Amino acid sequence: MLTLIHRLLDKVFPFTKSDVGRVFLQIAIGTLLIWGIRSAVFYVIQNSFRINIDPLTSAMVATINNFVSITINIALIGQYYARRWKEGVVKEERLEREKTQLQFLHLKNQVDPHFLFNAFTSLDSLVQSNPPLASQFIRHLSKVYRYALQNRDKDVVMLEAELEMLQHYIALQKIRFGTSLEIDIEMNEMPVEKGIAAVTLQMLIDNAIKHNEVHADHPLRISIYVKDDYLVISNNKQIRRQLAASDKQGLQQLKQLYTYLSEREVKVEEDENRFTVALPLL
C-alpha cells in the first residue's frame, strides 16, 4: 500500500517539484493511512468480537505502526535518491567520456595535418628526382589516410589491422628518412582478437620523430613489441635541441581515453636514454 502511494505521488507530486514538500507529504499520507487502517481494525475488533483494547495497548500499537510506516517511507525515498545519485554519476561519466573522445578525435585531426605537411614536402622532391618512388609514396599515403578515415569514429580497432596500416606509414617514413630511422616490430605471435585505441601507433611514432633528432650518424630507433598483454612502443632519446617544451597533451588524452577502455592504465616510463609507452591490449 505504501509503495503504491509512493508511485502515485511520483506522478502527481514528483520530487522535482519540491524535495522537502514531497518527503513530508509522503510521510504524512503514510501515517494517516496507517492511522485509518488501525482505527478500522480496532473498531471491528471492539464491536464485532467484543474485545476491549485499553489505551496503553492502543498507544503501543500506534507507535509501532507509525514507526513501520515512517521506516518504509524513508526506505522508499532513500531508494529514489540512491537511484538519482547513481544516474547522476553515470551521466557525469558519460559526459566525461564523450569529452575525452572529442578531445582525442581533435588530437588525431591535429596530428594528421602535421604529418600531411611533411609528406607533401617529401613528395614534392620525389616527383622531380624519382618519379617511380613518388608513385610508391602516393600509394602508401593513400592507404594510411583511407585507414584513418575508415576508423576516425572508432575508439578501438583490431591490433592486426593497426599493424597492417603501420607498415604503410613506416614505408612513408623510411622513404623520407632512410637509414636515419629504424622501426623494429617484434611480433612473434600475433595476439588473437586483441585491439588498441585507433591510430595510436602512428601518433606515438610521429611524436617520437617530432621530439627527437633523426640523423644518419645517430638513428632514431623505435621498437614495438608485446609484453604481458601490453603493446610496448619504446625509442631511444635524443631530444631535439631547438624543440619547445612539450605539455604532453596528446599522451595525457590517450591515458584518459584508456581509463574508459580498460581497467589497466597506460604505462609511461622515461629515463636518460629511453622513452617507453605501454598500451593495454583490449
Structure overview:
This protein is of the alpha+beta class and 282 residues long. It has two domains: 88 residues; 151 residues, 2-Layer Sandwich (Heat Shock Protein 90), CATH 3.30.565. The protein contains seven helices and seven strands. The strands form two sheets. Strands 2-4-5-7-6 form a five-stranded mixed beta sheet, with helices on one face. Strands 1-3 form a two-stranded antiparallel sheet. A hairpin with a 3-residue loop joins strand 6 and strand 7. The longest helix is centred in the first third of the chain and has 75 residues.
Separation of termini? 49 Å
- Rg is 34 Å
Average pLDDT score: 82
What best-fitting shape do the alpha-carbon axes yield? rod-shaped
Unreliable stretches: none
Record the strand order, biggest sheet. 2-4-5-7-6
What attributes does this structure have?
Heat Shock Protein 90; five-stranded mixed β-sheet; alpha+beta; 7 helices; 7 strands; 282 residues
Summarize the structure.
The protein has 282 residues and is of the alpha+beta class. The chain has helices spanning 2-12, 19-48, 55-129, 131-150, 159-177, 200-211, 249-261; strands spanning 156-158, 181-186, 195-197, 220-227, 230-236, 267-270, 274-280.
